[in-house]
């Protein structure tokens, strides 16, 4: 969910995959109270994202709407001279380098060095001489410029979210040279207009470029906020990622603390205290996501209430489950349970009877639940014939990994206790061979099949939100008592930014 969850103007924006604020943006005296999710982006990530700054600056220059510039000045002998610059456009823009610095408890400082740009347009001028002779001329012009930009991005609270404020923007001009009609040699006309147009032009460039940079940053933030909201939403299940406390800017990382409450059909879980401490996260990886046991457990509870913890198996999947071991005991048990019916004419239904109990431990995620299994034979024109029903208490420890853009859930320790057993092949329940076979089948094949199915479903859900578009490098999922940490490095897919800028601006 974090993400993974852009560029350095997007450094803030990508952080906002999880940065959304409470409507009032007012927090209590306890900085981590009520924190269920924490996102930390370190300096290496900021440096990587800063490489994309050029794309944003170029978009800002391209999309800046430069107004017509008009002015008037009295000149000796010539009288009153009026001028106007119109149809101003930017060409041949390049950036030498960009630097980023995280100022502790302050802001994100970005220095963009030597932005060279060629402005083109039309210059119209006219003057009235001492003898009231009026002349009007129009020529094409080019303006060569070399500019440094300094951006100080602050976190602002706007309504129900934190947004970047990039209005603290400075332009330093190292070069601003006017050429008329392509003539690069100085002349009286060029000298005349360069002297008193330059100052006005600098003010207009600063105002329009800085305004557009702030607009691009806000647009990216809105996009990321909408993306974050959709990423943590699945039909009736929503994760509240509004802020639990103010975002933190340190010299080595940016960190945001979120409520992480799960909302299901307008009913929300409650979390008053948190076990989070900044010392739980390091600074060696680019991105960290800290999730509390409460948030994970609440998600499982919501999935249970929504009827999502259910699995139907038939055909090859059903055959694979019941014929994992080719033994005499297995063949006899299958024959008695399915009564010689084809797997294609049978269905096994597995569902959770009680809300799963989740416990995060160093060895993995421990899940406890009462699970029902029902095997039915499908009869043409008749109600399905239930040949097996059992309820079993399951305890399983699961370790999670993420590789090749897939979430893999691996059970490492499992136990099964059958609580209810009804089978037409053994109505008295006195034949231990069938129960023993089923118990072994659940341990060896059933639990791995269920966890694999959940992993595949979660992978599909995350990829449908675009997670597979990102280059996630060496991700680690580490469970500890009461929380889980996801830590990773990443590569930024520049084409996503380019596509977004082309469609949105």
From TrEMBL:
Listed GO CC annotations: high-density lipoprotein particle
PROSITE patterns for the chain: PROKAR_LIPOPROTEIN (PS51257)
Cysteines joined through disulfide linkages: 169-210
Segment forming the signal sequence: 1-24
Protein keywords: Cholesterol metabolism, Disulfide bond, Glycoprotein, Lipid metabolism, Lipid transport, Secreted, Signal, Steroid metabolism, Sterol metabolism, Transport
Family to which the UniProt record says this protein belongs: Belongs to the BPI/LBP/Plunc superfamily. BPI/LBP family.
Domain Lipid-binding serum glycoprotein N-terminal: 40-267
Catalysed reaction, written as an equation: cholesteryl (9Z-octadecenoate)(in) = cholesteryl (9Z-octadecenoate)(out); 1,2,3-tri-(9Z-octadecenoyl)-glycerol(in) = 1,2,3-tri-(9Z-octadecenoyl)-glycerol(out); cholesteryl (9Z,12Z)-octadecadienoate(in) = cholesteryl (9Z,12Z)-octadecadienoate(out)
CDD domains, alphabetized: BPI1
SUPFAM superfamilies tied to this protein: Bactericidal permeability-increasing protein, BPI
Gene3D superfamilies per record: Bactericidal permeability-increasing protein, domain 1, Bactericidal permeability-increasing protein, domain 2
Subcellular location as annotated: Secreted
GO biological process entries: cholesterol homeostasis; cholesterol metabolic process; high-density lipoprotein particle remodeling; low-density lipoprotein particle remodeling; phosphatidylcholine metabolic process; phospholipid homeostasis; reverse cholesterol transport; triglyceride homeostasis
SMART domains: BPI1, BPI2
Domain Lipid-binding serum glycoprotein C-terminal, chain residue ranges per copy: 281-488
Function: Involved in the transfer of neutral lipids, including cholesteryl ester and triglyceride, among lipoprotein particles. Allows the net movement of cholesteryl ester from high density lipoproteins/HDL to triglyceride-rich very low density lipoproteins/VLDL, and the equimolar transport of triglyceride from VLDL to HDL. Regulates the reverse cholesterol transport, by which excess cholesterol is removed from peripheral tissues and returned to the liver for elimination.
Keyword flag Protein biosynthesis: no
Molecular functions per Gene Ontology: cholesterol binding; cholesterol transfer activity; phosphatidylcholine binding; phospholipid transporter activity; triglyceride binding
Keyword Glycoprotein: yes
Name used for this protein in its record: Cholesteryl ester transfer protein
Primary localization class, coarse: secreted
């Amino acid at each position: 969910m974090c993400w993974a969850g852009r560029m350095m103007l997007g450094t803030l924006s990508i952080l906002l995959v999880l940065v959304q604020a409470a409507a009032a943006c007012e927090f209590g005296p306890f900085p981590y109270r009520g924190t269920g999710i924490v996102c930390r982006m370190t300096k290496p990530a900021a440096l990587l994202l800063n490489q994309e700054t050029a794309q944003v600056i170029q978009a800002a220059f391209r999309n800046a709407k430069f107004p017509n510039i008009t002015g008037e000045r009295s000149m000796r002998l010539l009288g009153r001279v009026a001028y106007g610059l119109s149809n101003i456009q930017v060409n041949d823009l390049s950036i030498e380098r960009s630097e980023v610095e995280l100022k502790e408890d302050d802001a994100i400082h970005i220095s963009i060095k030597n932005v060279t740009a060629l402005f083109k347009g039309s210059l119209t001028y006219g003057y009235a001489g001492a003898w009231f002779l009026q002349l009007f001329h129009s020529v094409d012009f080019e303006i060569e410029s070399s500019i440094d930009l300094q951006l100080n991005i602050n976190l602002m609270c706007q309504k129900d979210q934190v947004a970047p404020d990039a209005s603290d923007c400075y332009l330093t001009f190292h070069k601003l040279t006017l050429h008329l009609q392509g003539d690069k040699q100085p002349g009286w006309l060029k000298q005349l207009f360069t002297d008193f147009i330059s100052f006005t032009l600098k003010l207009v460039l600063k105002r329009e470029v800085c305004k557009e940079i702030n607009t691009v940053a806000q647009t990216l933030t809105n996009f990321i906020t909408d993306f974050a909201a959709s990423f943590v939403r699945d039909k009736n299940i929503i994760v509240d990622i509004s802020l639990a406390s103010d975002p933190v800017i340190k010299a080595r990382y940016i960190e945001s603390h979120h409520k992480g409450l799960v909302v299901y059909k307008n009913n929300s879980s409650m979390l008053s205290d948190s076990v989070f401490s900044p010392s739980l996260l390091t600074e060696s990886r680019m991105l960290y996501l800290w999730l509390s046991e409460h948030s994970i457990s609440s998600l499982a509870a919501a999935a249970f209430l929504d009827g999502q913890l259910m699995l139907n198996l038939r055909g090859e999947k059903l055959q694979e489950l019941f014929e994992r071991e080719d033994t005499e005991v297995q063949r006899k048990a299958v024959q008695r349970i399915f009564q010689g019916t084809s797997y294609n004419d049978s269905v096994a239904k597995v569902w959770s009877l009680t809300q799963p109990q989740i416990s995060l431990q160093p060895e993995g995620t421990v899940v406890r639940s009462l699970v029902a299994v029902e095997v039915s034979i499908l009869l043409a024109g008749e109600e399905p014939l239930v040949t097996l029903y059992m309820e079993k208490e399951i305890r399983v420890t699961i370790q999670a990994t993420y590789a090749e853009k897939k979430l893999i859930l691996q059970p490492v320790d499992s136990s099964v206790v059958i609580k209810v057993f009804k089978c037409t092949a053994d109505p008295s329940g006195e034949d231990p061979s069938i129960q023993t076979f089923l118990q072994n089948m659940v341990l060896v094949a059933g639990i791995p099949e269920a966890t694999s199915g959940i992993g595949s479903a979660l992978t599909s859900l995350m990829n449908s939100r675009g997670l597979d578009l990102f280059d996630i490098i060496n991700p680690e999922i580490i469970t500890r008592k009461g929380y889980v940490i996801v830590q990773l490095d990443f590569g930024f897919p520049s084409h996503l930014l380019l596509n977004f800028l082309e469609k949105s601006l």
